[in-house]
Amino acid sequence: MGLFDFFKKKETEPEAQVALDKGLEKTKEGFFSKITKAVAGKSTIDDDVLDNLEEVLVTSDVGVNTTLKIIDRIQQRVTKDKYLSTTELNHLLRDEIQLLLAENNSNDFRQFEYGQHKPYVIMVVGVNGVGKTTTIGKLAHKLKAENLKVVLGAADTFRAAAVEQIKLWGERVGVRVVAQAMGSDPASVAYDTLQSAVANGEDVVIIDTAGRLHNKIGLMNELGKIKSVMEKVIPSAPHEILLVLDGSTGQNAFEQCKQFTEATDVNALAITKLDGTAKGGVVIGISDQFKIPVKYIGVGESMNDLQLFDKKAFVDSLFK
Ligand SMILES: Nc1nc2c(ncn2[C@@H]2O[C@H](COP(=O)(O)OP(=O)(O)OP(=O)(O)O)[C@@H](O)[C@H]2O)c(=O)[nH]1
């Protein structure tokens, strides 16, 4: 199977669905217990119910804009159908969330032109602690399991621990890691990694970057330099700029998304740590607000806990 086929694959296999269900348990519990409260004592969906629902969505980290959009759509359905019973609210909500996710996440990753570039270069960005390195390790593991040749570039040279951590993942997963001494030029690491990947005929390059959010100009310069060095080796690279966000941070994830999308051309999102948080609504809001597809979600710490985001499986799991 080639890279292209791998990313066309839909992750609805039973095992993945079980992991997803488990990972989203807290979000689901939080969400539905709030909804139950929101409709308590009401038989039809009226303005009160919609006001309460608005609060439920906002406090579930769906984000204000997306919440208003969902409420507006439900209101239109209520106006059209008159006297909708509150027992239908879950159905309505499910439909609207599914539609929203469909608008923003096509599940068709052809836009990333997998298989058309060898090596396919992914530059991974995000602040420290969001699960960037872990996501890189898990992704490398996933790709390697499909017999793809993967190389990692330790371009987060700012902290010694980051270089060590990625080397450790390389050993664990069994993929090559290109690294230089701590404090060396990240762009130089990226250059070396791409050059050696071309020479070795590797399929995928994943470059880690430092997650310093000192200020926008600094971030732009730092990422811009790495990008332009990559272009020198492979003019079309990076093919993917993957922003990693910690789903358990709710509104902070929105803010980071804003900063990084302003600083560089992010075209894919990975949302981690959805297990153990009730803030999974962030997946719905972020993809809608920034119009960037969520490509991966992290639902646990183990190597197999990174999933290709499947909007149908996600909604199924949430409303099961
Ligand atoms: N529960 C859970 N933990 C995760 C997930 N993804 C990452 N983590 C954990 O989050 C912590 C931080 O992950 P790192 O990969 O070190 O984060 P980072 O963004 O690379 O941060 P630095 O290496 O400090 O730059 C680690 O303990 C990971 O095991 C996830 O999907 N679920």
Mean of all residue-level pLDDT scores? 88
CATH homolog superfamily of the largest domain: P-loop containing nucleotide triphosphate hydrolases
Number of helices: 13
Distance between the termini: 32 Å
Are there runs of 5+ residues with pLDDT below 50, and where? none
* Main sheet record: 8 strands, mixed
The CATH architecture of the largest domain is 3-Layer(aba) Sandwich
Helix content: 40-55%
Shape: elongated
How much of the sequence lies in strands comes to 5-15%
Strand order of the largest sheet: 3-2-4-1-5-6-7-8
Sheet/helix structural class: alpha/beta
Q: Looking at CATH, which topology of the largest domain would you report?
A: Rossmann fold
What pattern of helices and strands is seen along the backbone? Answer: HHHHHHEHEHEHEHEHEHEEH
Rg over alpha carbons: 21 Å
Q: Which cofactors or ions or other ligands sit in this model? A: guanosine-5'-triphosphate
CATH class designation of the largest domain: Alpha Beta
